Amino acid sequence: MISRDDDVGLYLHVPFCDRRCHFCGFFTRARRDDRVAAFVSDLLAEIQLHGRTNTLRGRTVETLYFGGGTPTTLSSGQLLSILEACRRSFVVDQAAEVSIEANPASVEESFLRALRQGGFNRLSLGAQSFDDAELKAANTPHTAREIVQAVGAARRADFANLNLDLIYGLPGQSLSRWRANLDTAITLAPEHLAFYGLTIEKGTHLHREVEGGRLNLYDEDALADMYQEGRDRLKAAGYLQYEVSNFARSGHVCRHNLGYWTDREWLGVGPSAHSYLDGARFSAVASLEEYHRLVSAGVPPIEEREVGTPDLRLREAVAFGLRTVSGVACTSLRERYCLDPIERFREPIERLVRDGWVVLDGEVLRASDDGLLLADELAVALL
Ligand code: SF4
């Protein structure tokens, strides 16, 4: 058995939003005060359950990430009570990175100040675009003006580690409009920026529009141009790329998200949350009712569980690691899994190196500049 006693991450899923964005495939429900109160009490119960059963075996929680949904649909008091419950139930590092996602329309300075004073130290705003027509077409709950106001409120509330998320390839978005979005984001000077190509998830409004032939999306070449434009503009503005979609000022990489790509384990709590712990991947039920039923009975709300063999885990570690700019350190994987990744994947690695998508630099395997754009395809070649 592979034993691990290193630090872990903690992900907390808050499944409420004020409105459903047309592209969103996450598990989220409309906010209603009675639902929110019941959920907070269930989430506290799940955290305490993990504490009692020592799920983390005393491992130190180095990062906490409140995601969703929109975690800021909860009150500051509710969010701080959840953070406090984590501190009581787990060993949380004094210097832990504590991130929270927020919708720009749902944050005011006093609210953010309360979070900051209570220990949250990183704020991620789901900006998506600075064009009101694009935001409206995507049915987001906020306007461009509210993003700017939220950034100002965050700064006044003393958040010194701020991320903005953007999406490229939104319906009707031109390359010049995408450039303008990037430039506005850069002007706001966040420490961290992430941009993602629009993906069409089953079950979303956009998926229905595409299936019904009512919406045409960009082809891959146009999306690749937008991606390259984003990369060039952020680099020129002094941001360092550290993952396919993630850029940061020096010293501001998101430690929690980096963990997902560097074979670090994490526990997810809340409905639909995924976990990777003690070599197993598992996910929680994606239903508020079922979540309540299980947690109230003192049962972990797990729906699916897969225990990975060393071979599968090695494969995943390489596939995810190729998303990072620094690549995969083969020595540490060899020590962890007693398998040599270069030997194990010799054939696909040789092919990808020959085609220019991957570079093998001594013991480090990494995607080339062009290969980063194809990180999903590289993963498929290995998985
Ligand atoms: S605010 Fe975020 S989580 Fe909520 S529907 Fe929009 S994209 Fe999804």
Description:
By secondary structure, this protein is an alpha/beta fold. The protein folds into 2 domains: 8-261, Alpha-Beta Barrel (TIM Barrel); 310-382, Arc Repressor Mutant, subunit A, CATH 1.10.10. It is 42% helix and 23% strand. It is built from 16 helices and 17 strands. The chain has helices at 33-53, 76-89, 109-118, 132-137, 144-156, 175-187, 205-211, 220-236, 255-261, 288-296, 310-321, 330-337, 341-344, 346-354, 369-372, 375-382; strands at residues 8-14, 16-17, 29-30, 60-68, 91-102, 122-128, 162-168, 192-197, 240-243, 246-248, 266-269, 274-277, 280-284, 302-307, 328-329, 358-361, 364-367. The strands form 4 sheets. The protein has a 9-stranded mixed beta sheet, sandwiched between helices. Helix 1 (33-53) crosses helix 10 (288-296). The longest helix is centred in the N-terminal third of the chain and has 21 residues, at 33-53. The protein starts with 7 loop residues before the first strand and ends with a helix. The site of iron/sulfur cluster has 11 residues, from loops.
Note the main attributes of this structure.
alpha/beta; 9-stranded mixed sheet; 2 domains; 23% strand; TIM Barrel; 3-stranded antiparallel sheet; Arc Repressor Mutant, subunit A; globular; binds iron/sulfur cluster; 383 residues
